[in-house]
Design goal:
single chain; alpha/beta; 8-stranded parallel β-barrel; 17% strand
């Protein structure tokens, strides 16, 4: 069995070819797609976070709205760039969204990826400390966030408060119990996956990672997942970790599918995410269901993961994206043993 959700980057453009032409379109359609996905039996609705771009940015209003409109589906991010975040204020936002959703939040965070502007986190008021890189700063923000989620009091109360206080040091409110166990780290390398395991975070591995061995993407990603699980066990955590991978997967069912995605088989791509880091980008899948099933059976990383996030082309509209999700749930998942 495997949990299957969708991942939306939330693009919008004023182009006439796009069904998401404004930020309002994307936000409202994201809510509608989550509702539709829940009705279809999908397990998760996840959203990417990018700043300075015509994409989804501030996630918590959207997550709260989705939580209020749904009752079963997991809701989450993949991922929030912690270089841009005030971890204390984020505790309050995340706690409120999780309480509205009644404990269904699955929050993916990371040190971030290349953005639209140079050092965009500086405009948000953040700067690495002496000897720190921006990646170090993102991980430091994450560690503060994780520590505060434990709910321990740390702030000295005012001796003459406006409202009565509970005894002792005060914590941030609202705190959602159990959210600490539902934090995921988006790891781009084997080392950061091991780091996440030691801190007790679940693992999100996308279609991009550092090219560490020159092997096919799914083989490298599967090795990353195995290294993560070994580090989790070595750290002595008593719970079982969760691992997600994301893929672009399209079952070619009708003429729309073939027109959009029937242009041939994709392959892994090599690129650079900065001047020093060689990266490998995983292939997408698009084929008739019987061929698609055979292709997916060879993907070692999908086999290793317990959760699969289907990246959706959100600018094609809610109805078509619901069709994409339903096609996988109906024509692919049962044959793969995911349902």
């Amino acid at each position: 069995m495997k949990k299957i959700g969708f991942l939306s980057f939330g693009h919008w453009t004023p182009s006439p070819q796009s069904q998401a032409r404004s930020a309002a379109d994307v936000l409202l359609q994201s809510i509608d797609l989550a509702v539709a996905a829940e009705e279809l039996g999908a397990d998760g609705a996840y959203f990417r976070v990018h700043h300075f771009a015509r994409q989804l940015a501030s996630p918590f209003p959207l997550l709260a709205a989705v939580g209020a409109r749904t009752s079963r589906i997991e809701i989450g991010t993949a991922v929030i760039d912690m270089r841009y975040e005030n971890p204390l204020y984020m505790i309050e936002d995340a706690g409120a969204a999780d309480l509205i959703a009644k404990g269904r939040l699955q929050l993916g965070i990371s040190r971030g990826s290349p953005e639209q502007v140079i050092d965009g986190w500086r405009y948000f008021g953040y700067q690495p400390g002496e000897g720190e890189t921006d990646a170090d700063m993102g991980r430091r923000h994450a560690e503060i966030f994780l520590d505060m989620l434990r709910g321990q009091g740390f702030a000295q109360p005012n001796p003459r408060p406006m409202f009565p206080n509970p005894p002792g040091l005060l914590r941030l409110e609202p705190l959602s119990e159990g959210l600490r166990e539902r934090i995921w780290w988006g790891a781009g390398s084997n080392a950061t996956a091991v780091w996440a395991a030691k801190l007790g975070m679940n693992l999100q591995s996308s279609t991009l990672k550092s090219d560490e061995t020159g092997e096919a993407f799914h083989i490298q990603q599967a090795a990353q997942i195995r290294a993560y699980r070994a580090a989790w066990k070595e750290a002595g955590h008593t719970s079982e970790p969760r691992v997600s991978v994301s893929r672009s997967i399209f079952a070619l069912i009708d003429d729309r599918d073939r027109a959009y995605f029937g242009n041939g088989q994709e392959e892994d791509q090599i690129g650079f995410i900065d001047e020093r880091t060689r990266a490998i980008f995983g292939r997408g899948y698009a084929a008739e269901p019987d061929k698609l099933i055979e292709q997916l059976k060879t993907d070692e990383a999908i086999a290793e993961a317990d959760t699969l996030l289907l990246t959706v082309p959100n600018q094609l509209g809610v109805a078509y994206n619901a069709h994409v999700i339903e096609s996988i749930l109906t024509h692919v998942a049962p044959a793969m043993g995911w349902r």
